[in-house]
Amino acid sequence: MVDRQLDERVRDRLRQLRADRGLTLRDVAEAAAMDVSTLSRLESGKRRLAVDHLPGLASALGVTVDELLGPTVRPDPRVRRPAIERDGLTMWPLTHQGPGTALTAYRTRIDAGRDTPPDPLPVHDGRDWFYVLDGRMRLVLGDDDFTIEPGEAVEFSTLTPHWFGTIDGPVEIIMILGANGDQVHWLDDE
Questions:
Q1: CA distances (Å), 154 to each of 19, 57, 61, 113, 138, in order?
Q2: What values do phi and psi take at 160, rounded to 5?
Q3: Is the peptide bond before 120 cis (omega within 30 degrees of 0)?
Q4: Is the pTM of this model over 0.90?
Q5: Exposure of 72 by Cβ count < 10 A (0-12 exposed, 13-18 middle, 19+ buried)?
Q6: Strand 89-93 vs strand 153-157: parallel, antiparallel, or unpaired?
Q7: DSSP E strands: which ranges in 35-88?
Q8: Fold of the 4-69 domain
Q9: Do domains 4-69 and 84-189 have the same CATH topology?
Q10: 6-40 as b/e, with b when 16 or more CB fall inside 10 Å?
Q11: Which of 104, 117, 132, 171 has minimal CB crowding within 10 Å?
Q12: How far apart are CA 32 and CA 34, in angstroms?
């Protein structure tokens, strides 16, 4: 058996590494050739960690046993990603990007010159959410043409042909994009 302090540290490390990689209990348990319930009990402290668990867990998480036994490293919570500028948009990331990231958020400035939708309107998998901070945003969603005022929010499936831009000057928004949204909108072509 592993001593209690080390056991607790490894439990914390297991949870952190699994979350950082976007893995489920089932993913890690299968890769480590162990029962999901066993892994769940190990992480929750309802079962003591045995030395023979370490190699399989380390391998399943893509680390060495030494790294698994090491201290939990708390990542810097500050988001320090550079702004993205493209197609009349300047986007400041508000979330970290990495494996298992389901949603990404951006503070976005839509330039006044972005006022004409493309033909055809783009369509892709995903879901988008916008909140208008300042200015008046134009949202074309299929055959509908909306004016979104400051303080209003919109949510829509990106399987509907869509485009957003300005009406009479620059617009500031908060965007939350589903897992496919940021890749399709702009990050592919950076």
A1: 30, 43, 38, 22, 11
A2: -85, 130
A3: yes
A4: no
A5: middle
A6: unpaired
A7: 84-86
A8: 434 Repressor (Amino-terminal Domain) (1.10.260)
A9: no
A10: ebebbbebbeebbeebebebebbbeebebeeeebe
A11: 117
A12: 6
Contact 26, 36 (CB under 8 A): yes
pLDDT digits (tens, 9 = 90+) for 14-62: 888 888 788 889 999 999 999 999 989 888 888 888 888 889 999 998 8
Residue showing tokens 């976005």: 108
Neighbours of 156 (CB within 10 A): 18
Token pair 């940021």 is found at 182
CA atoms within 13 A on the CB side of 127: 7
Class of domain 84-189: mainly beta
Q: Please work out, in degrees rounded to the nearest 5, the angle formed at the alpha carbon of residue 10 by the alpha carbons of 24 and 27.
A: 15
Q: Quick check: 126 and 181 in contact, CB under 8 A?
A: yes
What does the domain layout of the chain look like in residue ranges?
A: 4-69, 84-189
Tokens of 118: 């493309």
Q: 95 near 78, Cβ under 8 Å?
A: no
